[in-house]
Design goal:
There is one protein chain. Helix 2 crosses helix 5. The protein has one domain: HIT-like (HIT family, subunit A). The chain contains 7 helices and 15 strands. The chain has a 10-stranded antiparallel sheet, with helices on both faces. A 3-stranded mixed sheet has the order 1-2-15. By secondary structure, it is of the alpha+beta class.
Length: 323
Amino acid sequence: MDSQYSEIRKDYRTGYYAVIVPGRDRRPKELETEDEGAVNLKECPFEPNTVDRVNLEIMHVNEPWTTMVIRNKFPELDGHTPLEYENGFLSSISGYGYNEVLIESPKHSDKFENMGTKKSLEWLNTLIEREEALYSRNYIKHVMVFKNYGASGGASIGHPHTQIIAWPEILGTPAIEIEIAKKYLKENNSCIYEEAVKKEESRILFETEKVAAIAPYGSRFAGESMLLTKRHVNYIMDLSQEEKEDITNGLKKIILTNAKLFGEQAYNFVIHENKREPDYHMHIEIYPRIANLAGVELGQNVFVNTVVPEDYVKKFKEKAESV
């Protein structure tokens, strides 16, 4: 695109539109502020001496524990809720499902992106174990894994943790992505995400033999990236050992490099996958929280992105953090 003009791009993954606006991104020095949502929290409930193991613990790894999974004390969904549907003009689904929290470390000051390879594989293998358990529950059709870091990233607790939610239906963006992936496969006899690795050549952040990281053409958020396997994998359990290592190391590389580019800011990442949808392609989307949603996004579901993906790629490669 001509760097002088804005451009409305369609995100091939979702069909959402993004207005790519050059020259309006905030300078990095304005972003170099510590996000207080991740530090100095009093009475943290995830500390080894405060976590409620009697009532909340689901599992832990090692003795003393290095990774623990607990029930979310304040869940959005509850497995004791009867699953009921209301159809018609006012339609609804009862809040059946499960919320779990993976505590990544017993140390409050640890950060996900600073994990060694062994520790990050422990994190990933624990997620796989919990997803398998949740998919075995009655009526569960989708398990979502995500991480909120920092106050503006939605984190209410600073202790390093990842969240897992098991849903009775595939809802929202994953449902849209699955529908588009199936349609593309039917019409083109190929996976839309595998095609992205080929067609996004100018927006590749980095790649290994097993994975690729992309700044998507229709990025909805400033500094958005997508990390995916080159081989078609729809479910996290099907990753090879080499893919696991490249996925975890690649995820940390993106977060560390973004910190160099944008300063110590909040972020989110979400693992997009589904055990029972073979046409879907597992990928992780990473969003540094350097801009807030406003009227265009909330009212029209069109996203204003002030960091041109091609510019982000150039700056990323200049600052790329080795892991």
